[in-house]
Amino acid sequence: MEVQWIAGGVCAAKGFKANGIHCGIRKRAGKKDLALILADHPCDAAAVYTRNKVYGAPITVTRSHLTDGKARACLCNSGNANTCNADGVDIANAMCDALARTAGVNASDVIIASTGVIGQPLPLEPIVSGMPALVAGITPDPAGAQAAAEAIMTTDTRDKQTALVIQIEGTPVTIGAMCKGSGMIAPNMATMLCFITTDADIDSALLRDALTTAVDATFNRVIVDGDTSTNDMVSIMASGVSGQCRIVSKGPNYDLFVEGLTIALERLAREVARDGEGATKLLTVNVNGSPDNETARAIARSVTASPLVKTAVFGSDANVGRVLCAIGYAPGDFNVDNIAISIASDAGELPVCERRVTLAFSEEAALTILKRPEIVINIDMNQGEGASTAWGCDLTYEYVHINGDYRS
Amino acid sequence: MEVQWIAGGVCAAKGFKANGIHCGIRKRAGKKDLALILADHPCDAAAVYTRNKVYGAPITVTRSHLTDGKARACLCNSGNANTCNADGVDIANAMCDALARTAGVNASDVIIASTGVIGQPLPLEPIVSGMPALVAGITPDPAGAQAAAEAIMTTDTRDKQTALVIQIEGTPVTIGAMCKGSGMIAPNMATMLCFITTDADIDSALLRDALTTAVDATFNRVIVDGDTSTNDMVSIMASGVSGQCRIVSKGPNYDLFVEGLTIALERLAREVARDGEGATKLLTVNVNGSPDNETARAIARSVTASPLVKTAVFGSDANVGRVLCAIGYAPGDFNVDNIAISIASDAGELPVCERRVTLAFSEEAALTILKRPEIVINIDMNQGEGASTAWGCDLTYEYVHINGDYRS
């Protein structure tokens, strides 16, 4: 599919404004901590959520608000996850109420999210105090999307936005998104938080199916540290003002939308992996020749998640044995006798294993490949048609530094 | 059960001699790399192995040698895992042959093991050249056990030995063991390599059952980094010369033996966790009040394995949210609403969570507890009688250092 990449993030699609401010949840003055996306009119909306049994209060509230498939705003704070607190649901509801009063929307049309430390009370006061400035500053300009994208960051080292245009029956349809990732990234879900806007006109039930399909192919294949957050959520609002014929059933137009959405989310998923806590390298693991896709996925996940593979990637060490080891303990029924492995980057590709036996490769050639910022491990199981890809990153001193000293 | 702890490791039980030398597999001159345990006579023997689908050539050979339930020697090199090499089985067989010629034992009575880097050819020459000195130096003295325990170490920072005496119908029965651990530690199996000797008189089929039971309660509950090695093995040889009435069926005497064996292996399992690669702290996670033992085990594993919990333990950070998060993504069917958590060490115990809500505890008190070298996290699920324990360690800069730079 041909897509046109454009600027503007969550403000790229028609019908949306955004803003982000520092309201005071975080102590550091410069760091924005409250983000808002506001639609001009109520939208078809959907979300997918963490599968962690312990989930944040905002998840409870958002799930309730989206039962009617409609939303008009996304409100998200960083610096505190509002999770495992006695008053969590009350606080989340009060946040929605504060936005409703100030922006003139229904509280039940608010998608609410929080990210940051778990188990510490989230003070309502700075959010309520900051609301007028947050709402007053909303704009459809890229600057609004930028401010919002910055306000949801936690240990992310850079904001993560994307936007693209696809054609549906000759009508341009725009999909934009912002997300945050970094730590606690694992299927399912990977992204912690992603907010998507589109001017597509699509029924909310189909929107939910499209979102589930696209997330499964993208964010759910990102692994940073194997932990699955309590607050992960991907939400989408569709303003319906693109002018394309409304999608009310599955068919070619629905498929086009899913494809465009998947392309947008894959770009963000790779950014999440690349910006994993402490990461210096993006690791892509491709598995082919597996008995089936599910097994390929399990193998790709096992290799991408292995701390020993991740530290080897950090050290630019072509440690084939660790890759074979991580394949070998992946769940599933598969044969390991004909495994072939190559390592690759923009500096070239090098076969390092055939028929499960490590080849006598040039260490110098391997080092040249592994010193690059984007590393690919290609695995061919040589026994079927199953294939899958997972994205991850290396495990570094900085990961330990960030997480040994996060709360303080 | 009352046990008497004694010195002597694998030489403590009657009927065994041991030695360890530097033969030249490793480049560093001082580091021993070849270990031998030799029984005076053929023993009842058993072993349990890694469940990794990619497993080392020594596993293939040992499995074949133990089909008759008999063995007389354990031969183990460090510095090279002899795994994923084209000639691996030939090399492992040649090692057994070399020992057989020199020591006058049957090659098929040799338990063979290798540990170290995967996927690099293991040179036979230094092993064959070193064999006369290895065999000539065997001794039943503790020095022999010490030399053998040192020769199986890889990134272990200290050797790991234990020995104890139990009473079976008034007759003293000794169980001794050495093991190596450090990286790649995860259920199932945890230990990489453990060699056990006993002078108990017990049928080899029962010996295997006893070993499986004891390993399941000990080594299989240790988690260092979630990776499961290709070469893990726990073997046991029983010389039968204690003079106690031979155990030929399950009953009180068999139960006594299993209990003694479990106590010995638990001590080593804790040492493996404490000496996890780069570890500065031993982490024990106790789960009670779970719907059943299996669920308790899954929860204990999830918390012990979480990189975010491990880095928090390293940073002495009472990050309750990360513990709750790791409980929440454990597999199984359980309720999370009534979780209570306390943290403990020899400096005291502090409740930090009740009914899934983080308590307002003293950060100073938490820090005092978490600064200690042995940390305990007690989790009460408050919904049943299931209980389990897992042992692990913190995740540190040193782990990254060791594994980012292991092969070179």
Would you kindly provide a written description of the structure presented here, covering whatever features stand out?
Two copies of one chain form a homodimer. With 408 residues, chain A is of the alpha+beta class. Chain A folds into two domains: 4-274, L-amino peptidase D-ALA esterase/amidase (4-Layer Sandwich); 282-404, Ubiquitin-like (UB roll) (Roll), CATH 3.10.20.340. Chain A has eleven helices and 16 strands. Chain A has helices at residues 57-65, 88-103, 125-136, 142-151, 204-217, 252-274, 293-305, 307-314, 320-328, 363-370, 397-404, and strands spanning 4-5, 16-21, 34-49, 70-78, 110-115, 160-168, 171-180, 193-198, 222-223, 233-238, 282-290, 340-345, 348-354, 357-358, 374-380, 386-393. In chain A, the strands form two sheets. In chain A, strands 1, 2, 3, 4, 5, 6, 7, 8 and 10 form a nine-stranded mixed sheet that branches. A seven-stranded mixed sheet of chain A has the order 9-16-11-15-12-13-14. In chain A, helix 1 (57-65) crosses helix 2 and helix 5 crosses helix 6 (252-274). The interface between A and B is large, with 62 and 62 residues.
Show the helix and strand layout:
The structure is a homodimer of 408-residue chains.
Chain A: E1 4-5, E2 16-21, E3 34-49, H1 57-65, E4 70-78, H2 88-103, E5 110-115, H3 125-136, H4 142-151, E6 160-168, E7 171-180, E8 193-198, H5 204-217, E9 222-223, E10 233-238, H6 252-274, E11 282-290, H7 293-305, H8 307-314, H9 320-328, E12 340-345, E13 348-354, E14 357-358, H10 363-370, E15 374-380, E16 386-393, H11 397-404
Parallel strand pairs in A: 4-5, 8-10, 9-16, 11-15
Antiparallel strand pairs in A: 1-6, 2-3, 3-4, 3-10, 6-7, 7-8, 11-16, 12-13, 12-15, 13-14
